[in-house]
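Q: I have 416 residues here and want to know how they pack in 3D. Can you give me a structure?
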Amino acid sequence: MNKYVFIILMSIHFGSFGQQKVFKGDPDNAFKVARDLAFNKQRKQAQDSLLLILTKYPDYHDIRSFLASTYSWDGHYKKAKEAFNYVLKKSPDRLDTWEAAIKNELWSGAPYSALEMVKKALTHFPKNSEILYLKASAEDASNNPEEALATIKTILKNDSKHEKAIAYKASLTTKLSLNTIGLKASVDLYSQVFDPMQFYLIKYARATKYGSIHAKINFNRRFQSNGVQFEVDMYPRIVNGLYAYLNFGVANSFLFPDVRYGAELYKSLPKSFEASLGFRALKFSSTTIIYTGSIGWYQKNNYWAFRAYVTPGEPKASKSGTLSFRKYRRDANNYFSVDVGAGFSPEENRFNFGGNEDAIINLQSQKFNLGYYFSSKNNHNLWGVQTGIAHQEISFNPGTYFWIYSFSLSWDLLFK
């Protein structure tokens, strides 16, 4: 008989027991059918069947524990907890039930309750790696990442190849590394007109409970001249799902704006989307305001984003944009990136503006960049390699283009 036909027939068969007070039938076969129903998106029918079996076999703990799990999957955490507690009170030596019960507390947003259950579970299963892993999860969820890391180290001391613990240790190490120093060096090689241009950056970043702060020193050698810019970036958290970007920079060289500043709001949206809206201001001989916005989408290990810039002006506004793609590997520090764009970007310092800001902002260009970013095993050291090519209109000879070949290396060190 076809499996799904069998499931439907058995579902109807169990439904006929709706008016009876006690189950009649083979509990093992009925349990198997109920499991099939649960895993085939017929959870309500499965739960009704399981409850019916329990009217005659109240201490069939596999059935009650599975029933509790289905409640937990559906978000009925209180009902799940009651069923788990019933089983564990009568049979506290059930490891699988302890694990499912602790997960139920974590999923319900009750990490302190999960920790209480962990303590009881460890009296029956001392040093059990899976229970300890859930203990670390509860400690992390209750804002004690240091204790979580200590627990993970205990797991790895007894089982050095525990894959989940290894990955969690790296994640916690990154989370606890509140300070970052970084270096970046890049060079632009031109097909004609200009000598190579060099860019260097040194930064210090600090993560706080209010958001992160980045202090940067940018050094450029362009047009046979040297220039330094001092910048501060801040990413304050406002409320859950809403944060901001604030920027301020100063310089005393024509290679940079005298003053630059900007602000942007980022908002998380349903379906793993994120949107932002803000502006950048560049002050040379006059101040140019550039409006910007982005839309991003997280899809499993992929991230897509489009950012646009609009600069009001006469006879018409200048527009530019960049489409970006990232393919993440084990975490946010390990990914491959591709960027394709056209038009002027205020994030790049390649021009001698010299009071000619309006003309430069309207220059035509196209770019293509590839990047690869990776970290050490302990996530303390982060490296990045990027290469790109741009087809750029010449500022003093509109309509004429040259090629720019870019290469850059970056290194960040994370520490407590």
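Q: Anything worth noting?
A: The first strand starts at residue 179 and ends at 190. The two ends are 63 Å apart (CA to CA).
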